[in-house]
Amino acid sequence: MGFLMKTIYNQVSDLISVGSSVIDVGCGKGKLLISLSPKIDYGLGIDISERKVKIANKKNNLKFKIEDSSKLNSSYSFDYITSIFSIHTMNYVNQMKTLNNFSEIATNKIIVDFVKSKSRLKQQLICFDEILAGHYSAYKTYIDEGMNSLIKKSKLNLIKEIEGKYDFYKIWICN
Ligand SMILES: C[S@@+](CC[C@H](N)C(=O)[O-])C[C@H]1O[C@@H](n2cnc3c(N)ncnc32)[C@H](O)[C@@H]1O
């Protein structure tokens, strides 16, 4: 796990109570849940990418499923929903559907995603990375709109914003 992501996962872990249940949306290869697994009771990771879900390691208290967050199963019930750098990869319609779905399935929502860095160089590196990852157009729409505006338009209530350890991301806590 890269040092940077480890720092972010630790910051998220500090916000999650011991013995809770967590659904991680856009879980990728499952690294957040794997790092949380010793402290939580149960974790479900969902991702639209079949390849990534297959790679996600299985631990006793974790499960990973292929699922589209814009069509999330509304019968889910978790203490926490986490979304780490997933919203910016979606088109606007799916961003709104996904955020609105969050309101149904967990009490506490923890969203981590990009904000514009003050450093032009960092901004350019992120843009370059997004081009390579194939979701630059979604990222551009997201960064121009901003997470605060998306949350305001959604059914979520913003409780708190937490500064990232680096200035290119933030954590939004909603209920
Ligand atoms: C930048 S990756 C972040 C992965 C992971 N959260 C992490 O911390 O490494 C974004 C993830 O969001 C997933 N994703 C994008 N759109 C999705 C959707 N509609 N439903 C579920 N997952 C989605 C992608 O497949 C990808 O794994």
Task: Explain what this protein looks like in three dimensions.
- This protein has helices at 3-13, 31-36, 50-55, 92-105, 120-133, 136-145, 147-153; strands at 21-25, 42-47, 62-66, 78-84, 106-114, 158-163, 169-174.
- The longest helix has 14 residues, at 92-105.
- The protein starts with a helix and ends with a strand.
- It has a seven-stranded mixed beta sheet.
- It has one domain (3-174): Rossmann fold (3-Layer(aba) Sandwich).
- It has seven helices and seven strands; from the N terminus they run αβαβαββαβαααββ.
- The chain has 175 residues and is an alpha/beta fold.
- Bound molecules: S-adenosylmethionine.
- S-adenosylmethionine (SAM) binds next to α2 and β2.
Helical region count?
A: 7
- Give the helices and strands as they follow along the chain: HEHEHEEHEHHHEE
Percentage of residues in helical conformation: 25-40%
Total beta-strand segments: 7
The share of residues in extended strands comes to 25-35%
- Give the domain tally: 1
Main sheet specs = 7 strands, mixed
Question: If you compute it from the alpha carbons, what radius of gyration comes out, rounded to the nearest whole angstrom?
Answer: 15 Å
Give the CA-based shape. Answer: globular
